[in-house]
Every structure is written in structure tokens, then in C-alpha cells.
Amino acid sequence: MKKNIPKIILSFYLLIMSYYFYTHQYYNADIEAYMGLVYKANFPDMKIEEIHKKVYDELLEKRPEISEVNTTREEEAIGDNSYYKILSENPKVYEEELQLFTVKPLYNFINSIFFKLGFKASTSTFLITIISYVLIVILIFIFLLQILKNNYLALILTILVSVFKPLLDTSRHATPDGLSCLLLLLSFYFAVMKRNMFVATIFGILCILTRPEYFIFYSFSLLLLYIFKSDFRFKTREIIFSFIYFALTFGVIQYFNQIPWTVLFMNQFTKVQLYPISNPDSFDFQAYIACVKSKLLFEFNTSYFTLLIIFIILILDYKLIINRNRKSLIYLSFYVVLFMAVSVRFIMFPSLVTRMMVGFYLLIILSLIAYQSSKKQILEQTD
Prior knowledge:
Helix content is 75%, strand content 0%. The relative contact order is 0.10. It has 383 residues and is mainly α.
């Protein structure tokens, strides 16, 4: 019975947090696009004017300011602050906006399922985020139980991680970030803890279908697994097939994607286009370089990556690394791979939005806990 007490406590805790998220959802700017895609999926013959009216009739009850000009912040791109007011007034502009969000097919598909079950369109877009939060916390608890072998310590750390601000913020937004974080953690859990590349690949494919840019991270991670394949007992063909499946998944999404990266970049970081698909701005390489340079220090310093690098430096034992201890080298290589993937993503889209980075943050935190827990064993093996 005593062993079950932490599980019972965690269950009640998650019920309370789920209720909180359900009653305190933040109706972010992207929700109007995801709601529109829900209507398009369930009513393919519905005219865009009707979809537009249904979406904003529902949203204006919950967040009236969505149709106002935002004067509280400096514009990221020219026209950014007035863009959502224009969307709320112009169905044709709104129709092109929807196509920017079709590259997350799994998230949109799940939203449509909730809508079919009878939930409102706005509610349908954030239910999977709340469910993802619950499953992420349960997965963290399972991971820590296996690493720490102490139920109460695992519970305390799980609750502390569960109130990590980026995870809480992610769980209040109608975005695919919570779902992609869950799928990312599941893929790594099955790859590293269960040594099951097949299941890990399935979750990786689903993660890419939720957020295609994770293909960058999975590609680097497979390279790392190939280098240390004997330590994980993976075969070369398993790793090659995983990469092929990831590449095909990413390729299929890009095949149906109507918006080139150049158009998306210019629209998001220089001047917001009302008709980005039918009448896009031409790509300006000088503007791209200027944007990356202007955001480089600010984005990394305002993210959690700088703080986590400090913990990596403090916790990793560099005497072991100099002595080429394989386990320590694997951890160090993993952090190098992670920061390489984040850097490549930043070069493509110079923004480190916290809710999009939460999966990377959690991987670093959990791996540092695992390394610290196994440090004594590593030192004994080295001696």
C-alpha cells in the first residue's frame, strides 16, 4: 500500500491541474487558424465566409481583444500588431492564413476528432494539450522511478518539473507544442530506456507529423545513435530505416505544403503579408541575415538554454570525458547534438519561443538527473 501512495498523490495532483488548465486556457493568436481547419475538415463544402463567422463569433465571446490592434508590444515584423484585427474582418485574408497551419496534420486531425465528439471548435483545439500535459507528467514519473529507485523522491521531482514554467505555459495554449513534446519524450523513452527502435521510430514519425522541424533533431540524434550503436544494442539497418521513415514523413509534409520557407520567413520576420500565398514578398537575403544577427544573443539569453548549459557544465565530470569514459561521452555528445539541432532551427527561424523549446528543456533536465544518479556507478567502473 505504501508503494502506491506516491501514485495516488500524483493522480489527485493531475486531476487538479487538468481542471485548472481546462478553466484557465489562454486563447492565443493561432487558435483562430486551428479552429478554421477543424471546420474545414468536418465541413469541406462550407464556404470560407461561414467558417470565418463561426470562428470569430465563438472567439469574441472568450477573447474580445483578438479583433483589436495590439499596441502593448513592439512589432516583430511590419504589420504584425494589426494583422489579427485584419484577419477577424477579412475572410479572404483568413483563408490564406489557414494554409500556414496545415503542416501539422496530426494535431489538426486530433482536433477534428474532438470536434466530432461534440466539443466546441475552440475547446477541441486545446483538449489534446491538457491530455499531453497529463501524459508527460506520468511519463516523467515513470522515468524517474526507473532511474532513482525511490518512489517519494521521484514524486517530488516529478511535481517540481511539472510546474516548470515553460511546461505550464505550453499547457495553456492551443498549439501542437504539448503534443509534440509528449511524442518526443516517448520516442526517446523507448529508444534509450526500452531499446526498442521500432516503437521509438513510430513516435518520432508522429512527432514530425505534429511539428515537422523536429526532423532536424531526429536526424542528428540518429547520427549519435549510429556512433554509439553498440552501447544501445541497435543495428545499423534499424538506424538507417528510421532515418528513411523520418525523411519520408518530412518529405510528404513538404510535398503538400504550399508555402516555401522563403515566403514563410519574410512573412513572419520582416513584413506580414495579407496574401502570403497568392502575392508573397520576394525573399531578401540581406534582410534575412540582419534578422538572424539581431536576434542571436537576445533569443538565446532570454531562453532557458543558457541556464541549462551552466548545469551541464557543473554536473558533467570532465575528468571522465578526458579519460574517454563512454557513458560520459554519450551524455556530452547528446547535449552537443541537441544544441546543434536548436542552432540549425534558429538559423531557419530565428526565434526560440519557449513553448516550442519545452521538449528540449525536459530532455536536458531528465538526462542530467539520470547522469547525476548514475555518476557513482560510472566512477566505480572507471576505477
